[in-house]
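Before relying on records like the one below, remember that each one covers exactly one chain. Contacts with other chains, cofactors or solvent are not represented anywhere in the record.
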Amino acid sequence: MVKLGFSVDNHFDVNRIDPDEAARRQAAYLLAHHYGLYVNAGDSFNDFQQTLAYYHHLQQLVGPAVQIRFLAGNHDLVKGISYEDAQRGIDPLYLHEQSLTVGDNTVIIGNNGWYDYSLAPQDLQQTADFAQWKRAYWIDSAIDQPVTDAERMARVLTTTRQALAANAGKRVIYVTHFVPTPAAMYYSPEHQWWQMATGMMGSAKLGAMLEQAQVAAVVFGHLHRRQAPLKRGGTTYYHQPMGYGLKRLNEWGTADWFHEWTSTLVTLTA
């Protein structure tokens, strides 16, 4: 049996966490608790190069006992990487559009994910200009992207469909940054800013595909709203983001980042 750990939305820089201390403490925990694989599902730093350096450091600290992999959330893509490089297998630890076999019959499929506005309320989908709102108000406007959001999400769906077909008959754990199902969403009609932001949360089409393929488990983040495991048919969704521990925006239950990381670590087995 292989013990698998998944985490998301650590935001080391925004949370003002020393990366060297974080890597040492995470490495010690993963080794002490006998994890064989650790996957971070995105939003580690607001700079892809810092994210890449962090997970290489973590891999060096744990050595061959633990495989380290990571995805890029929207924050990681703000700086330090082009759109073209973000879609390529530019590093052995980068799990985007990659599959990793663990145990006897389990495969981890990784994909950064994206969004197509399909998680927004129906009335807004009919009337709102999400692309214009994004350019004016959303951090993703700084991300290098020569294609539309719909086109970027179409690639996610295409490469996911191909990965699922290539691994048919296996137990699949799918890891992504963005929200893959409307069942995990929440809405606040009295807050129009948030209602518009829901368009940038993910895609309902992805979850429909994963459930149809009977994917065993889906790990994701981005929404910053911790939830109990959500089962839909044969698929269980895990959404346990670490999130922000700031005075102006505190999503933690304690003041200790390490406690928040360990308490939101999703553990599965293969």
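The beta strands are 3-7, 37-40, 67-70, 98-102, 106-111, 171-176, 217-220, 230-232, 235-239, 266-269.
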